[in-house]
Amino acid sequence: MLPQNVAAWIRTPKADLEIDEAPYNEPGPGEILIRNEAIAIQPLDASVRKAAYMPIPYPFILGSNVAGTIEAVGAGVEDFKIGERVVSSTPTYVTKETKWGGWQKFVSSKPEMTAKIGEANYDRAVAISFPLSTAVSALQVYAGMAKPGEGEKSAYEQEKVLIWGAGGAVGGYAVQYAKSVGHTVIATASPRSFAHLESVGASKIVDYKSTDVEAQLRELGPFKFLMTASGDPTSQQVLASLLQPNGGRFISVRAGEVELPKNVERIYNMFEAAGQGPEFRHWWYTTYLPEAIGGAVEPTPTEKRSGGLKAIQAAGDDVFSGKAKSKIIVNPQE
Description:
By secondary structure, the protein is of the alpha/beta class. The protein has helices at 43-51, 92-95, 122-142, 169-181, 194-199, 213-220, 233-242, 278-296, 312-321, and strands at residues 5-10, 17-22, 32-40, 60-61, 65-73, 85-89, 106-109, 114-116, 160-164, 184-189, 202-207, 225-228, 248-252, 264-268, 302-305, 327-330. The chain has two domains: 5-116 and 301-330, Alpha-Beta Complex (Quinone Oxidoreductase, Chain A, domain 1); 133-268, Rossmann fold (3-Layer(aba) Sandwich). The strands form three sheets. Strands 3, 5, 6, 7, 8, 15 and 16 form a seven-stranded mixed β-sheet that branches. Strands 11-10-9-12-13-14 form a six-stranded parallel β-sheet, sandwiched between helices. This is Enoyl reductase (ER) domain-containing protein.
């Protein structure tokens, strides 16, 4: 007899979630099935539910980042065995099929989008993986930053990096990645995040609400790489101004809400590792992510909420509204 699967369904655009039965999908060729032990509530997921951020078929199961144990493997899968502990990015927003949705007890995924985590904590693994992949793929694939260990760190010290919005998960991991390569990192954040950012490698932190924030940053520059991990209009305007008079480009986690000077390029994409090329994905899932989860990266603050799948609704609302100050983790097996 197959185990019973349960999911948090969204039936119509912007609707409340409904907890109900879902199919238990035996893995097909080249697929794995994961017993889902930890979900991190991502801003993307919260935006799709609350604001219909992207088109999806309804009813649907949201979520694309999970951690748990391998429940079953399909034909041709050789690198993963039943019982192994993993973290995975599912292709739910690409395929738009419910079996890949992370907000359920048993979720399908792909081996090439999955990393082994050994004895690492599930909560730690799922909290780190998605925002870290956004930061790393943005800086490496799109901005051209090197990988850790490529060349001497001292060669990069004079190349300053500016991370705006470093108090959030993506920004905090961007600080750590740039520092691991060898760069001198300047960050903006609110004062409550200063101590954490100093501990993970920021050389100087500026309060983003300071009336003279642009002047302070200009004094600390110039910058080889610029990234806004908040993507808000103010950050985009400031970064564009800092690039004058010669122009340049900056990374943003949000699309264009601000008209930029003609000599400034805003680089925007989904950035997540699963959407990158095979070479990057292989390095990410087999080498970098397991090392990061194993201790090479310090996780940003997390909050564990009880209630299982029923807790996702309120958690997502808090993430969408900005009330959540930490990465919220839920165990769907509760």
